[in-house]
Structures are given as structure tokens and as C-alpha cells.
Amino acid sequence: MKRENYPTVDESALMGSVRTNLDSPYPTKEQLARKAKSIALIKQMDLPYIEGLPVVEDEKEIDARTPQEVAQRCIAVVLCAVKGETQGDDQALIEELVKEYDARSFFSPQETAFIDERNPKRQQFIEFSWGYECSHVFLWALEHINELKPPNEICDVPYEVGLIRGTDPEKFILEARLRSQAEILDMADYYYRLHWAAIEFRLNGKSSERIDEGIIRERHRALNWLIRYSDQEWDDITTDT
Question: Whole-model pTM?
């Protein structure tokens, strides 16, 4: 059965809630080049795309995160992911790690509630364990890893947790450095369009071995936080496509 077309809404009604073409009515050459590069990569993967999907924000519009801020967010999501992965079996270990990294102030309100909860729901364990894919992006942004895994391949959790554990907690934050904003925006644009492709496949009952929507969603979330998409706080980050 043929799926009906998407419902249409005037873009002006969506401004301020999702990214639209009206946000950058006159895209810079850098924005257009970034979009073209992402589409070329997606076409090589034989995935769907649309030319009408907006460009991501221009570098001059971004209030860049500080390296220290990114390092702290990386630690926060990893600690929550560890608790999620271990299903809360060792709350004492989690509390010890929070103390070791002096991480109490790094957590968002939802993360704080999860870290402190003695008996979280099973779905919470699952949701927070996905944080490893977010930390994968942050470790890439902090130049601890050279490139992201393909969008169908989960990150190397033992190796990447080892990168954090193998560095003095204070040094991990104070000596953090960040990739260029141009590189981060390139990746944000790519995952924005990848996420659209993954959702398009799902809605049409199709699939591809080249992508995993769950992996893409979490990386897209982390990248949106890095570029301050819609000035959203961590608990409120959206991955609109």
C-alpha cells in the first residue's frame, strides 16, 4: 500500500521550534558546500536524501562550547551509561566514580535523578546506556579519537572508557582541546541528513545495513548539543529532521 505524502506545514509556523530554510534564507558558500558534501556521502551509501532539507547553522552564528564544557559533558554521559549498562548492580562504584571525577555539577537534572535513584526502571537503564554513543562524539570532538565509527557500528566502549579512565580526571578537563567549529558543523550536517534518511527508510518499511537509526539518533543528539542547536539544554535536546 502506498504511503500518503507527509503533511505540509508552512515553514514560518515552525521557526523557533525546528530548523527551517527561513533560518538561513541566504546560505553562505560554506553552508552550501557542507550540505553538498553530506549529500554526496549519503548518495554513495545509496540512501535517500532531499535537496530541500535546510542547511545547518553558519559558523559565525554558533556560540562554541568550551573544551572544558565538552569534557565535563563527556564524563557525565559516560558515568550515566556505566550505570545503565550495569543495570545499577553496583551503585557504590557509581558513587565512587562520581566522587573521583568530582562530577556532581556536570549532570543535568535528569542525569542527577538517574544517578541517585536506587531502583531505576528498566527503560531508564536502556536509555542512559545509549550515552556511550554520545561520549563517542564528544571524544571525537575533543580529538581523543580520529574519526567516528560508521553509522551502523557501535562505538568501542571498552577502549573509549579506557581513554577517560587512563587520564587523570583533572587533566582530562583542564587540558581538553576542541576540534574546529567547521569540522563539528560538517559532522552535524552529515548526521542531520543521515537521520532523515534513517527515518525515511523506517517510515517506508525499508532498511539498510549501512545505517542504524539508534546510533545515528544519539550521535545527532550530541552534535546538536555541541552546536547549541536552538539553545537547548541537555535534557531537552531534539533531533529534528
Answer: 0.92
